[in-house]
Amino acid sequence: MQLPELESLGDLTNCRVLVRCDFNVPIAAGEIQDDFRVRAALPTLTYLMEAGASVTTCSHLGRPGGVVDPTFSMDPVRSLLAELAPGIGVLENLRFDPGETGNDPAFIQALVEDQDVYVNDAFGACHRNHASVVGPPVHLPSAAGRLLANEVRVLDALRTQPRRPFLVILGGAKVSDKLGVIDALLEVADDLIIGGGMCFSFLAAKGARVGSSLLEEEMIETCARLLDSGAPIRLPIDITALGPGGVIGEPSKGGEVRQVGTSMPEGWMGLDIGPGSAVEFCNLIAEARTILWNGPMGVFEDARFAAGTRTVAEAVADCSGFTVVGGGDSAAAARMFGVDNRIDHVSTGGGAALELIEKGDLPGLAALRVGVERS
Question: Of the N and C termini of the chain, which has fewer Cβ atoms inside 10 Å?
Fold first, then answer.
């Protein structure tokens, strides 16, 4: 997929450049908890500053619902950028205005006013048909930033020409959220591991009792269809479960934790893959030449249910093949377990990565390709 890149913008001396970044970072008590996405934008911002441009960044943060909410202020990001890249401007949270998510032409016009050039470096927002993502290229010469261009190169190659065996590892909560990408990946993957909460809909389709585990009953028939098709879907063979009375994230509340098979007693909740599953999955991971991992194997934020995700994360990091972590919770897990620097590519956009793989394009990318050229 060909996108206009920074070099296509020519001489940027004294140009005013608006950069759409993805600074949607976790913040607690006014402090950034994970600055990965801010630091990921630095190569683009540095290029523009060194080229003599005046740079203003813009981003969303959280879901303030189209109203000004100090909880979602960009001040923490502004303070961090003042340290990392002095001289960079930061607009206030785009989603304080309903025109951002509503793709309002008046809001777009306000964004591009007094700007000479637009750069999109917000891969994690490119699957949104939002004003700051699809609007500016209609009005300004535009290009993809370093982060965005690299994300597209990696994920497009993963989708079209992976080295084999190509192993996909999917986790997360719901089958319904990932059905489209499951169908798309089954066309190119040699094996598809399914863990996390979504595995229980598949296990139920095989007749297993899932107790109080997360279950989408309306997806059981679909899961049965996929399994009956002969698709290379690999499911857990054992589960780490929490007994009645236990509370996720609060070990002090009690509740027995034990390994069970794929059928659970009434009232028990599966919250991680078991050790036998981890061994089977690690064997597949070791043999793979290309890996895409998106979604944890369990509720890894609770130490009682972190073993499966940690084991998979370490196995992916140890794999000699080309490894990609598809953003979101799996990227957070890779950083939490200290293996992110041993992964070949950690995406900044979980939802955008999956949608690009599923559909082959994103609204933000299409907007750049049809944008106006710089004279």
Answer: C
